[in-house]
Amino acid sequence: MNTLLLAITAIALVVLLALVLRPLQEEAKPEQEEDERISPLLRGINYLLSDEPDRALQEMVQVARLRSEAADVYMALGEMFRSKGEIGRAVRIHQNLLARPDLPKSMHLQAHLALAIDFQTGGLLDRALYQYRKALDIQSDHAGALEASLRIREQSSEWLAAEELLSRLEQVRRESYGSHRAYLFSEMARQCCNESDYEGAHGYADQAMALDQSCAPARMVEIELALRDHDFDKAGVGISALREHSREHFPLIIQILLQYDDYYSSEGVNLLHAFWQQGRDAELALAWMEAVGRDRSSAEAQALCAELGFVPNSLRESLRLNAVLGDESDAHARFSRQWRKSAKNYACEQCGVEVVEVRWQCPQCHSWGTLHPKSEESI
């Protein structure tokens, strides 16, 4: 049985227990009436165990009809509709619950959270945030609502609001999220750069660096701002610091250096050569040749390869080199270039998802700074 069916079965069992135990808390119902309610639920659980979720859902609807006053039955029914992808029906159930004047106060929080998840699942993020705020009005330290709101703010690139939620989450969990906050500040810095607010970008980048020296995107913003201001000494210090604290992401700076030819030609080339001699890092050489071949010429990339004396040591390195230097008439070169366009270049250490372009936040598990460059290619 898959995870979804197990989850639905668990919900049904909870409702069954609620139906059986409720007479201990309320005035007992006639035994025949209670049997009418429990029988379809038992049949529903049996259908779930038999991997027949549609028939199970029909029985749950019957339970809801027989016990229309039981909010827990409707909560379970809404969960089942959502799990089947019927978001609209789940929303209506949870909205109707909240509209009931007799809904117990203890159920309001659960109903708002369920409705928020409905909207979030359906992609209606503004409505989801509204419902999470309603839940937080009831219980301000609800970690689940805070974390879900944080994810939505990050997904919408609302970095200031995300940072505020992260602060609240730190207080609730009594944990420090310094590295996470550094990445949020780096995104604010990049956003300021895009809006030509260079003073703001400086401020946010500095805050990120104070929290986490290895925050590569913030360091890259600092380097780019120094190059823009023609402060080459500061740029050189930043480049060296990036190499020291974020070596695996260091090759990403080459693309930026090539945009400032006055620095690249006078100092950048020598600095990159020095780093190459120190470690003969294959990723550095390949990223350098790829950037030169893309922004300048294939001939210059070939000259750089000869100058570095680079020799590939793996299938992935061979494919990348062939994609840059191979002749268009060569079928192997054409294949390598096609492969390079869609090759997964980064993998998340937390969940294993692979992506083509660099991302500072994993698109699957939402962790920050967990995507690392791949060094090998599976066959």
Rounded to an integer in angstroms, the radius of gyration calculated over CA atoms is 28 Å
Beta-strand content estimate: under 5%
The appropriate CATH architecture of the domain at 3-173 is: Alpha Horseshoe
- Please state the average pLDDT score: 84
In total, the number of strands is 3
Written as H for each helix and E for each strand, in order along the chain, the element string is HHHHHHHHHHHHHHHHHHHEEE
How is the biggest beta sheet arranged? 3 strands, antiparallel
Q: Percent range for helical residues?
A: over 70%
Fourth-level CATH superfamily of the domain at 3-173? Tetratricopeptide repeat domain
Structural class, please?
mainly alpha
Between the first and last Cα atoms, what is the distance in angstroms?
A: 32 Å
Q: State the shape.
A: elongated
Strands of the widest sheet, in order across it, are: 2-1-3
Helix run count: 19
- Uncertain residue ranges: 19-38, 63-69
CATH class type of the domain at 3-173: Mainly Alpha
InterPro entries: Rubredoxin_2, TPR-like_helical_dom_sf
Pfam families: Zn_ribbon_LapB (PF18073)
Keywords: Metal-binding
Organism: Mariprofundus micogutta
